[in-house]
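User: Could you go from structure to sequence for me? I need the amino acid at each position, not a summary. C-alpha cells:
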C-alpha cells in the first residue's frame, strides 16, 4: 500500500501586463472618484480607503498568480515594519507642534517674520517669511492656510499682484516642507529610502537651496518692477500675537535645543520628543497664563494644570481661542492625534507599493522603461516623470512620493548609488509638484485657500518648478551624485 501523494503546490505564474495595470488603474479611478466626491476632505479617509481597496485588488491578482495569502501577509508586514521609525517621528512631531504653539515658540517666529514686511519688496519678503515659518513648523498647508492667506489679502490692499504673491507663498511653504525635520514628507522620504533623515536633508539642500535662492531672486526682480500704493496699512491680525503671548527670544529655546540635538546627530524621534518636552517646560515658565487658559479648569491645582496642559498639547494639540481668526487657525493644531490620518494614508500607500513591488507587478511595468534608462541621467528622468505622472493621475502627493521610492530603490542599489540620491529626486519630483496640479489634493487646497486658480499661480511657483529640474540636471551631469562604498556595493 502506497502513501497518497501530497497535494502539489500551485504553480506561480509571472504577472502579465494586464495584471500589473489593473491595480494601478483601479487606484487612479478610486482616488479620482474620492477627490471628485469629497473635494479637500478626500484625504480625511476616502483616499485611504481607495488605497486599501486597490491593495485588495492587487492581492487578488497575486493570489490568482499562485502565491499564498501567507506570502501576501508577510509582504504587508514588511511594508509596515519599514515605516516604524517614521511612525515614531511623526507622532513626536505632532507632540512638538502642540507644545511649541503653547510655549510661544511658533508665535514668536511668526511675529518676528511679519515685522520684515515692506511694500517695496513684498514678494521677496513673502517668500522669506513663508520659508521661515514652514521650516519651523514643517507644514506647507498650515503655512499657506494662515500666513499665506494674510499675505495674499495684504497684496490686494497694497495693489500688488495676489497671483505672484500666491506663487511666493507656495514656494516658501514648500521649501520648509522639503527641508524641515518636522515635515512628514521629509521624514517619509528618508525612511522609505533607508537613509538617515539628516543625511537626506543635507542632500536635499543641494537642490532646495539653489531653487529657493532662484525663487527669491525672481521675486525680488518682479517686485522691483512693480508699482505699489504707498501709505496703505499692512498690519494684520497676526501682529497681535504679542497681546496673547510673551514674545521674546527666550521662547526660541526649544528651537535651539532641537538644533543642537540635530547637530549632535541624536536620533530624530528622540531629539524631536525631547524638544517637545522642552517646549512644554518653556510654556510653563514663559507662558503660564496661556497654559491656564488652555486647560480652563479653575478648580484644579496649578501644578496639575501645568502637567495636564503639556499632556493635552502633546496628545491632542494646542487650541487657541483668542477670537482672532488668523491666530486661531495658525496655532490650533498639533498633537499626536493630528498625525493619524497621515499615518493612515502612509500605511495604505506603502502596503499598495509593497504588494505591487514584491510580487513583480511594478517590475512588469517598469522594467521595459529601465532597460532604456541605461545612464544615471535617464534613470533620474524616469523617476521625475513617474512622480509627476502619479501626481497628475493619482492626485495625491504621498502616492507620488512613496511609489517611486519603492519602485526604484533596488535599482539604485544595483547601480551603486547612495539612497539619499533617490530620496532627494523623489521629493524634488513628487512632493513639490503636487500643488501644480489643479485636481491634486494639494493643488485643490492651495487654490481654494488662497483664492487664486492653480493655472494662474503655477508660473510663479519658481521653487516648485526649479527643484525637479535641478535634481534632473544633477543626475545628467553627475554633480552631487553620491556613490555607494565598494564594500557595500559588493554586498548588494
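Assistant: Here is the amino acid at each position, in order:
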Amino acid at each position: 500500500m502506497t502513501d497518497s501523494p501530497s497535494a502539489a503546490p500551485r504553480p506561480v505564474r509571472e504577472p502579465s501586463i494586464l495584471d500589473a495595470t489593473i491595480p494601478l488603474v483601479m487606484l487612479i479611478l478610486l482616488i479620482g472618484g474620492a477627490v471628485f466626491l469629497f473635494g479637500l476632505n478626500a484625504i480625511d479617509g476616502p483616499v485611504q480607503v481607495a488605497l486599501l481597496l486597490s491593495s485588495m485588488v492587487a492581492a487578488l491578482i497575486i493570489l490568482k498568480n499562485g502565491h499564498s495569502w501567507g506570502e501576501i501577509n508577510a509582504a504587508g508586514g514588511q511594508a509596515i515594519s519599514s515605516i516604524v521609525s517614521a511612525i515614531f517621528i511623526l507622532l513626536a512631531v505632532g507632540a512638538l507642534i502642540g507644545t511649541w504653539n503653547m510655549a510661544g515658540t511658533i508665535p514668536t517666529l511668526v511675529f518676528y517674520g511679519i515685522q520684515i514686511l515692506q511694500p517695496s519688496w513684498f514678494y521677496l519678503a513673502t517668500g522669506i517669511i513663508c520659508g521661515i515659518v514652514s521650516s519651523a513648523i514643517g507644514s506647507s498647508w498650515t503655512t499657506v492656510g494662515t500666513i499665506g492667506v494674510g499675505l495674499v489679502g495684504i497684496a490686494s490692499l497694497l495693489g500688488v499682484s495676489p497671483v505672484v504673491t500666491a506663487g511666493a507663498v507656495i514656494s516658501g511653504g514648500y521649501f520648509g516642507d522639503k527641508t524641515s525635520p518636522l515635515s512628514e514628507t521629509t521624514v517619509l522620504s528618508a525612511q522609505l529610502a533607508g537613509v538617515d533623515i539628516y543625511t537626506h536633508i543635507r542632500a536635499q539642500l543641494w537642490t532646495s537651496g539653489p531653487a529657493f535662492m532662484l525663487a527669491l531672486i525672481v521675486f525680488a526682480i518682479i517686485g522691483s518692477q512693480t508699482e505699489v500704493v504707498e501709505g496703505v496699512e499692512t498690519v494684520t491680525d497676526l501682529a497681535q500675537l504679542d497681546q496673547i503671548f510673551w514674545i521674546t527670544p527666550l521662547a526660541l529655546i526649544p528651537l535651539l535645543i532641537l538644533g543642537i540635538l540635530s547637530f549632535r546627530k541624536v536620533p530624530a524621534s528622540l531629539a524631536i520628543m525631547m524638544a517637545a518636552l522642552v517646549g512644554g517646560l518653556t510654556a510653563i515658565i514663559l507662558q503660564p497664563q496661556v497654559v491656564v487658559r488652555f486647560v480652563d479648569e479653575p478648580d484644579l491645582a496649578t501644578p496639575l494644570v501645568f502637567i495636564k496642559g503639556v499632556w493635552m498639547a502633546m496628545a491632542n494639540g494646542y487650541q487657541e481661542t483668542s477670537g482672532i481668526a488668523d491666530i486661531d487657525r495658525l496655532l490650533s493644531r498639533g498633537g499626536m492625534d493630528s498625525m493619524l490620518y497621515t499615518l493612515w494614508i502612509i500605511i495604505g500607500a506603502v502596503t499598495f507599493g509593497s504588494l505591487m513591488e514584491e510580487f513583480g507587478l511594478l517590475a512588469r511595468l517598469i522594467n521595459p522603461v529601465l532597460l532604456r534608462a541605461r545612464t544615471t541621467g535617464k534613470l533620474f528622468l524616469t523617476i521625475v516623470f513617474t512622480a509627476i505622472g502619479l501626481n497628475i493621475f493619482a492626485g495625491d502627493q504621498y502616492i507620488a512620493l512613496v511609489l517611486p521610492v519603492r519602485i526604484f530603490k533596488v535599482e539604485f542599489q544595483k547601480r551603486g548609488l547612495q539612497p539619499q540620491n533617490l530620496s532627494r529626486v523623489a521629493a524634488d519630483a513628487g512632493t513639490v509638484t503636487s500643488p501644480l496640479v489643479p485636481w491634486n489634493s494639494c493643488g485643490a487646497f492651495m487654490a481654494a485657500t488662497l483664492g487664486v486658480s492653480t493655472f494662474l499661480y503655477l508660473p510663479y511657483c519658481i521653487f516648485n518648478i526649479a527643484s525637479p529640474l535641478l535634481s534632473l540636471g544633477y543626475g545628467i551631469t553627475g554633480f552631487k551624485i553620491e556613490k555607494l562604498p565598494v564594500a557595500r556595493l559588493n554586498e548588494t
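One structural detail worth keeping in mind: Residues 197-224 form the longest helix (28 residues).
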